[in-house]
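JOB MANIFEST
job_type = single_chain_structure
chain_count = 1
residues = 182
[input]
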Amino acid sequence: MRRGKGIPKGRPFKPIYVRAFRARKSVKGWSEDARCVVPYITLLQRLRRGWPPEAAITTAAALSKRAASAMSRRGERPVRLYGGFGEKKSAYAWSRDPRCQVAETTLRQRLDRGIRAGIAIKMELPARLGRSIRLYTAYGESKSLHKWAKDRRCQVSYDTLRKRVQRGARLTGAMKKKRVAN
């Protein structure tokens, strides 16, 4: 089946075959496949709406408002799904994914901070993720305070440099040791 073309409505007389993951199976066959995360009827409806077959098979069904309210009455929480790599999974499912390189608690913390699952499952996060690093300019160069504190021209510690800049000192003056009057 081509992408963008849906399955025609009406009761088919013969099985409908769909090509996905380099295989060709009937819709019923795909609904019984281990990769399928939705029931047969949901899969059929998605394909009729024109979903790409791989997405229709692997995307978990969203919780309806009715089901969510019933869960809250019972004191249960609905499972939150996080997207990444074209898939949507719970935090637990992402932690069990073979691509996940971090512990489940670390993954949950990252997902709760709003980091996408595709990035959150990696061991090292990109340096500028989630916050912008302020740059300070001196001597015609722009660097973060951490880098200025490591610069050979800086004569004070990072903490001293940060405090002086917060108090309003110019960066070039804040990097110099003050002489102590005897």
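[summary]
The chain has a mean pLDDT of 80.
DSSP finds ten helices and six strands in the chain.
exit_status = 0
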